[in-house]
Amino acid sequence: MTGRRKALTATLAAAAAGLGCAAWWSFATTASGNLGPGPADALIVFGSPAEINGEPSPMQTWRVREAVAEYQRGAAAHVIFSGGPTANKFVEADVMSRKAVELGIPAGAISTERHSRTTIENVRGVSAIMLARGWTSAELISSPDHLHRIAVIVGPAPFRWRLHAAPTPGRGRIATAWAYAEEAAATLVLRTFGSAAEPVVHAVAVCEHGLFFLPRWVVWKLRHHAPAHSTGR
Fold this sequence. Notes:
Layout lengths: L1 H27 L11 E7 L11 H15 L3 E7 L9 H11 L7 E4 L5 H15 L3 E6 L1 H11 L5 E6 L7 H21 L4 H27 L9
Parallel strand pairs: 1-2, 1-4, 2-3, 4-5
Helix pairs in contact: 1-6, 2-3, 5-6
């Protein structure tokens, strides 16, 4: 029995290692786009859930700040913020666009895609905006780990594109490692099964977001909805 357990453990370990290597290969060999370094028609900023009170989350703020920097250096004359309400009721594109105006992007330069709930829906929504405006090139902005999955999905989009990473300076090492592992697995799934697998990838992400936000939501509720105490007057 001991020999069988050792053999089973070795087999499972080898399988896990093989899947890990396949996931990382799939992640590391994604395309980087077909647009050169010159100005693009638009910056496309991919969404992330807002805070439970509707304020920009750190991830949203990092992406918006990078979009502002790129806009100000002349990377594009227009900015599209993409994302609907995913982990909570707040529309990601609206939250990010307000932050962008606050940081200096003119409201007239901003378009929003407000209905998408998955990355593939992000791409479809912004593609429609690009076609409607007659724009043919875009710089895609998101966190470094997310860009690889975007590259797999956006490949056949009707516009030329390149990737641009928004730094995540406040994210811890463990959270960063987990994000890369998660996106590597998601990229492998998408490259193996195609874009039809994106809803499954998204469902897993929604569950993770829910587990992350639930404790914070409970604390926020307790702080802001505690019953008022009588003054005894």
